[in-house]
Write a structure and sequence with these properties.
alpha+beta; 7-stranded antiparallel sheet; 8 helices; 12 strands; 35% helix
């Protein structure tokens, strides 16, 4: 279970709940499937199949999982069901229905179709690093990460979590990093970058599988800002750092991802414990280096 994307949040104050209190709190907001006319449903579930607990603890790392189920109603299906009723109503009234009347009819049709709709489920995982007081959410979507935090906040009563990096300082560092300057310790430039002009037109350019120190890339720094940059950490991982502080496309080096292969999967609990600890410790160390570089950016002149 290796995180591929990250939304990272820093807690202003440590959580006062112990693991038992967290378990009880999450159980109050457990996942239940959608009922007949319910369009969506969200709640906590066990993060790993081998455990029925809502919290999985491995040393100072605690994992949570939010499951969301939603009914799938294609617009074409709703329209096909709605059109005969719309035609009949307009013929009965002798006029075209107003937008408000059409919207009301659409809501009625959607409500009636929901019990027959297919359901789609997705599970979002998160990890609380109690030592660093950071929450890592395994998603690149801001809205999905916020859904996780909102329900955690509701369950725990309080969750003083904010994005982990100052976006202005990060933006300045992305510009420097692309120039191969002041990179986080142990990191080097990857082969992908996206830049965007800060004006209304917002012209964009992307380079992939490209040497980023070449003039054709560097020249864009004159009128554009880096919005995503790939960085690689030798023998550990590679990832793309985005202007909003999110991390995308995490790729773990073979020396990391295969480190526990000798354990096999005969004892799933042992392998799960080994892999989650290895993943979390790897991410924590790499995130620290990234954060240290951003915090030190005020002292560095381009």
């Amino acid at each position: 279970m290796w995180f591929k994307n990250l939304r990272v949040y820093q807690l202003n104050t440590p959580l006062s709940l112990d693991i038992d209190a967290m378990e009880q709190a999450l159980a109050e907001f457990r996942f239940s499937p959608c009922t007949g006319q319910q369009a969506s449903s969200s709640g906590f579930t066990a993060p790993f199949a081998s455990s029925q607990s809502f919290c999985y603890q491995n040393q100072h790392y605690i994992f949570f999982a939010l499951k969301r189920q939603e009914k799938i109603l294609p617009a074409a299906v709703v329209q096909e069901e709605m059109q005969p009723r719309l035609d009949a109503l307009e013929q009965e009234k002798g006029r075209s229905l107003s937008r408000k009347e059409k919207d009301s009819l659409k809501e009625d049709v959607t409500f009636q179709l929901l019990p027959r709709a297919f359901s789609r489920s997705q599970t979002i995982f998160a990890c609380l690093d109690q030592n660093k007081q950071r929450i890592l959410v395994n998603t690149s979507s801001s809205s999905k990460a916020e859904d996780m935090l909102a329900l955690l906040r509701k369950a725990f009563g309080s969750l003083p979590a904010l994005p982990w990096l100052d976006p202005y300082k990060l933006s300045a560092q992305l510009q420097l990093w692309l120039q191969d300057k002041a990179l986080p310790e142990g990191f080097k430039l990857g082969a992908e970058v996206e830049l965007k002009a800060p004006d209304e037109e917002g012209a964009k350019v992307r380079f992939s599988n490209h040497i980023l120190t070449t003039e054709d890339v560097q020249s864009h720094l004159e009128d554009k800002l880096v919005t995503r940059l790939e960085l690689e950490q030798d023998e550990r991982l590679g990832w793309k750092v985005c202007e909003d502080g999110s991390i995308k496309g995490i790729k773990y080096h073979d020396s990391i991802s295969s480190q526990n292969d000798e354990l096999g999967w005969e004892d799933e609990d042992t392998r799960l414990a080994a892999d989650t600890l290895l993943m979390c410790s790897t991410l924590s160390e790499s995130l620290d280096r990234l954060a240290d570089s951003v915090r030190a950016g005020d002292e560095i002149k381009p």
